[in-house]
Each structure stands twice: as C-alpha cells, then as structure tokens.
Amino acid sequence: MTAHADPSAWAQGRERWELDRRPAEVLLIGSQVAFGSVGMNGVLPQLGTARVVPLPTIVLSNLPHYPSVHAAPMPAQWLADSIRDLDALGLLDEIDSVCTGYFASPDQVTAVADALAPLLERRADLRVLVDPTLGDSDVGLYTDPAVAPALRDRMLPIATGIIPNGFELGLLGAQDATQTDAESAARALLGPRAQWAVVSGGSAAGGRTLTDLVVTRDDAQRLEHPLIPTTVKGTGDAFAGALLAALRRGSGITAAVSDAAAAVRALLG
C-alpha cells in the first residue's frame, strides 16, 4: 500500500527514521558532480531552504573538461524504480515542482516520463520545468544526440515551462525545418501543458548584452542584460535554479527571468 493511499504510514516512517522531517517541495533530476558547480550542484544553492529531493541521472568525478573524469550513468530502470519508490513514500504528493536537467540517454528520458505519468494524471497542476541540457555553441553536444528527439517527444509534452539556450533550441526544433526565428521555434515546442519557453543567453547589441527571450502562446518579450564575459560552466544550471525559486515565490515568468538573470550576474561578480 502506498503512502498516498495511507498517509499515516509515511508520517510514521518519517517520524521514526528521518532527521529532516519537513515535507518535500521539489523533485530535481539531473547530473551530479563530486567537484564542480554544474548540474544539480548549480541548481541546489539557488533553491535556498527548500526541501529538495535530488535524483541523479549520472554521477561524475568532475567536469569532463579536465584531464581526467570518471562517470557512471544511472540505469534507466533505476531512475524509473526510484521515482516509484519516492511515490510510494508519498513524497510526490508533497512536491510543488519537478525540475529536469541532464539526461545521459534517450532511455533515461523515456523512463522518467513514464514514471511521472501517473503523478501528472492525479496532479494536473504540478509544475514541471524542463531544462533541455544538450550542449552549447562553444562546446557543441555533451550528451547522446538521441536525447534531443527523446526530450522533444516525451518531456516537452509534459512540461509547464522549458528553458533551452539557442543551441538547444535548434536541436529541439530540428523536426520542423520551416522554423527560422527563435520566437516561432520556441512557440512550436510548447506542449499541451506548457505555459512558456525561455530561450536564454542570446547575444545582442554587438555582443555587449545578453538577451533572454520569453515566449508564451500569445506574446514574446526580450529581456536584455549586461554581458559578463566568462568561460565558466554551470551558469545555465544556476539560471534554472534561480528561475524555479522565483516561480515558487509566486513571480510571473517575466519577473522570474529578470530575477534569475540577476542571480547569475551576482555569481559572476
């Protein structure tokens, strides 16, 4: 019997076993590095005191840009079974948000989408933020190319919002070669649950500013921010975390994007 069928069972287990007995608030799915500020390490600090349940898709010693790296992708079945374990504990009936980032394989995408399906059937208003972590213009792809169509086919239809960069937008929109501008391409990715897409970090004004494009079904806004030249990685993860934090505070999407951009600038000094 699952805890959402018998809430007292989970409450008693938490009381007996858990040092932190607060309700869960966010299910975070993505990469985990032992050293570095990418993946879930980039998202978590931005969520402050929220009770986050982190579920790794891959565990790495450090960024692959260093001379050596060791990585262990999680089996797709493990991800699916772990989500079901969390559901059986009643945790998924407590959260207000799901946030997904890096996937190492299309099988992982399918497993997570399938495991989340029963949750979304009973919680139609649950926020699902999809950060399609596929690559960037300076380094190209950093995952299996087959992850892009898997995200487009399985995760975008259940997303409330998506936050690709320009490089990722092109990969996700490759199915429709007629889309030639970012606004229409982003709008074409909005699934049945989606409220918005944010295309982050485009360049403008001769490279002196960055532009975040906020697209809804009926509108589009471009928010310009000062460019801080950097080679560091993890800014997109920090942006996703700060954006989710602002949304959880009740901000609208445009205000949330402004807050998230300011948070990243503060990290860059």
UniProtKB/TrEMBL annotation:
<dbReference type="Pfam" id="PF08543">
    <property type="entry name" value="Phos_pyr_kin"/>
</dbReference>
<dbReference type="InterPro" id="IPR013749">
    <property type="entry name" value="PM/HMP-P_kinase-1"/>
</dbReference>
<dbReference type="InterPro" id="IPR029056">
    <property type="entry name" value="Ribokinase-like"/>
</dbReference>
<keyword id="KW-0547">Nucleotide-binding</keyword>
<feature type="domain" description="Pyridoxamine kinase/Phosphomethylpyrimidine kinase">
    <location>
        <begin position="94"/>
        <end position="265"/>
    </location>
</feature>
<dbReference type="InterPro" id="IPR004625">
    <property type="entry name" value="PyrdxlKinase"/>
</dbReference>
<keyword id="KW-0808">Transferase</keyword>
<protein>
    <recommendedName>
        <fullName>pyridoxal kinase</fullName>
        <ecNumber>2.7.1.35</ecNumber>
    </recommendedName>
</protein>
<dbReference type="GO" id="GO:0016301">
    <property type="term" value="F:kinase activity"/>
</dbReference>
<keyword id="KW-0418">Kinase</keyword>
<keyword id="KW-0067">ATP-binding</keyword>
